[in-house]
Amino acid sequence: MVIKPMVRSNICINSHPLGCEKAVENQIAYVKKQFGGKKPDNAPRLVLVIGCSTGYGLASRIVSAFGCGAATVGVSFEKPATTSKPGTPGWYNNQCFDAEAAAAGLCSKTLNADAFSNETKAAVVEAVKETAKAAGLPSPQIDLVIYSLASPVRTDPSNGVTYKSVIKPVGKTYSGKTFDIITGKITEISVEPATEEETASTIKVMGGEDWELWIDALKNAGVLAPAFRTIAYTYIGPKLSWDIYKNGTIGRAKEDLERAARDINKKTGGENAKHAWVSVNKALVTRSSAVIPIIPLYISCLFKVMKEKGLHEGCIEQMVRLFRERLYTAEAAGNPQKIPVDAEGRIRIDDLEMRDDVQKEASTILDKVTEENIMTETDAAGFKHDFLEANGFDVAGVDYEADVKPDAV
Can you give the CATH number for the domain in which 28 is found? Predict the structure, then answer.
């Protein structure tokens, strides 16, 4: 079949297998070029990525494998392709990653399962042991755990209750502009404040509780290296977005993520043996960011400024910098206290986005953007490209008129 993007209300509901494959290959090629075969100091040898199929999770796994030479285990919950219908983008991304890793002589194992369940945690422990053995490692000791889940729903294994996350303000209605990715039409939308139950449910899904449960499960199974490191990802952004993001339901969940990092450190050795960090990353095009009021317009303005200044980064560039300039610098190689953090103990790789000059220029553009000038004053075209590329479309070198078998990749 010929597969074209199907976009409804800024959500792409299908994917292209060959485009997803090519996009993963491009990220791998970038990492190989950046590292040039030279591993960082104290590079991890065995890495677990929870939420490995797209975005920052996928990029983290690619850098771990093709930049650090690590054996990797990944877990994500994806919809497989059938003979008549494409799978989710992450399904194809995982397939491609495993194939490329095997071709490069790197051990990898990917589990397609609900990362919130106890059964999956147990299965991952066994996968870690198998992967370590296949890689010839002396013991199944995980050096790095990446927690990058972005699921909208979680069933708590302790009580069987299913929780759903929402993207809403807290305490008051939020109104802001957004634009249709396909047509460029700008509209004003309002979002009612979340109820206490919705806020609590969002924290349950997107907060740090499950991250802690993963570390507990791995520690109890004896598969964590003594000097393991674990990272979870967050976003803060500019003040103009705080009412819907930082001070909203997502922000409350991210506060809990930081709470979890502190608690993980207390349980695994205290401040002098720090193991857990939250990394604040740059604004990028994701399934969520495409539907949050003001965020698509802000990102389009931000991309315009950062590209003109030569500062723009995507997921893979961000993760290369996280590994090379934060986690595994020469100074931090044997001493986690040397990892550069802000006053709150967070790693900041949103530093380029949050530069005063970048924020000032992006804000100036945002104030004057209209439907008539959106394609010239902002990088709405770049936003659209990234949105489509995340689903395997608009990737250079792919023939989108060709007949494709959805389950062939």
Answer: 3.40.50.720
